[in-house]
Design goal:
By secondary structure, this protein is an alpha+beta fold. It is built from two helices and three strands. It has helices at 24-28, 32-39; strands at residues 7-12, 18-23, 42-47.
């Protein structure tokens, strides 16, 4: 059976970015001075899994040199002649009630 590992996630307080994730056993092996330097101006979180993003999204900025104009969508004109075929008002079919 696999041994459960614990990791420490080190997050910079000012930027809020994750600096690194290290094994808890590595921290236990460090001296007190190294531990103090590691945690200065940082938040430390104990996590059970080491996960790293596999997709990085970057937005590129471009300078617009000329004014942009957006055209309104063209309105479709209604047909001039509507179909004259209407259903007859005195239709023998009736929906809803049954004759008994």
């Amino acid at each position: 059976m696999a041994e459960k590992q614990q990791f420490v996630q080190i997050v910079d307080v000012q930027t809020g970015k994750i600096e690194r994730i290290i094994n808890l056993k590595e921290i236990d092996a460090m001296s007190l001075e190294e531990k103090l330097e590691l945690s200065k101006h940082k938040n430390l979180f104990i996590v059970t899994h080491r996960m790293q993003p596999i997709v990085k999204v970057e937005l590129k900025k471009t300078v617009i040199n000329s004014p942009m104009q957006f055209e309104e969508p063209a309105k479709e004109e209604e047909p001039a002649a509507k179909p004259a075929a209407k259903p007859a008002a005195n239709s023998p079919k009736s929906k809803g009630q049954k004759k008994t």
